[in-house]
Structure prediction request, 430 residues.
Amino acid sequence: MSRRWIVAALAVLGTAALPAGAAEADSAATFAPVACPASVGAQVDCHEARDANGAWVLVAMPKTWNRRLIVHAHGGPRLGAPEAGDSAEDLDRFAVMVRRGYAWIGSTYRRGGYGVRMAAADVDVSRRVFWSRWGRPERTLLHGQSWGGNVAAKAAELYALDIDGRPNYDGVLTTNGLLTGGTRGYGFRADLRAVYQYYCRNHPAAGETQYPLWQGLPAGARMTRDDLRERVDACTGVEQPAAKRTPAQAANLRDILAVTGVAEKQLVAHLAWGTFHFQDLVQKRLGGRNPFDNTTTHYRGSRDDAALNAGVERFTADPAAVAMLAYDADLSGLIVLPTVTVHARHDPTVSYEAEAAYKATVDAAGRGDLLLQALTDERDHSRLQDATYASALQVLEQWLDSGKRPATSAFADTCGRVSQARDACRFIAP
Prediction:
């Protein structure tokens, strides 16, 4: 693999250089007032601007500000071009933070599609934009959820300190974060594509252009999520009540779910990720090269594992693609800030086992004293209980105030104080 190809490929990923426009980004954003989501409350002003790199940034500023800022990294990634107003949904989801007095800023990122380093750079630009407009807060906290947890963790590794070694952030919080990094985070969806195709044979269908499943879709292929949903339903009846499924559909669905471990309600969503996001990742970010490998995977749990393993499509990862994805999205564990992670035990999208993987990475880097992890018994991925977010923030603040890493029990203890609804406190023993 030539050095020229590596440089060109990294440029495609958006990782070959420092963030474009970094010098101008602090002063280039001109904010205009916009309507806030009702969920943040009446005593909040919202402002929106476009930064020098083209990302839209949304700020929520409480009229009674606690002089703390939350810099948010959103999940996804979203595949469409960023537009004004895109961050309003994120602000609504985490409105409890603003209601508790925090200022909040979220970036759309400069473009849609995969790119953890790109997104991390844009997150840090949003911090600088806020500091330039409203001044440096007393405390700046970095938060990411879902894929945004990967982004926030990467941003904490890249931008925690300025060039003189002074902290840009005071602490980090991830919630339901994809903390396995890129090379370990998506293989189960490549497995899902292979297992699904073995049973269903309609993605791609006979008579259509055939392509290796790790591509997601060929470059330029047109398919909508509704098109995909129709194919999945035709094979598995997943959109139908169980009583209305044919015996063949029920059998296909049972085997696909049993082998892959995907929940029935999430089947289309995971296949969509393994279709449209894989297309973006492979075709636009990795130069058409394959980062996935199932050559040694033994699939289990079907009616006939021998037939499945003999007939399923196999694919071998390209080392260059794996290296590029690792550089972009894997984590080193070399954290320098107090870091709190919270995960729902029954998260249907990102397994809570990502937390153990991240802990192993951080421990291997010798930084385990800076990591505190919590688990809840919640079942949602995209939005946790308000009490979960509020308690996690409070525990992180206690850590920063005291300089002493709290005990794991601090989450449940704190939740009992911050939430009037006792059933909203869902923290459990890890």
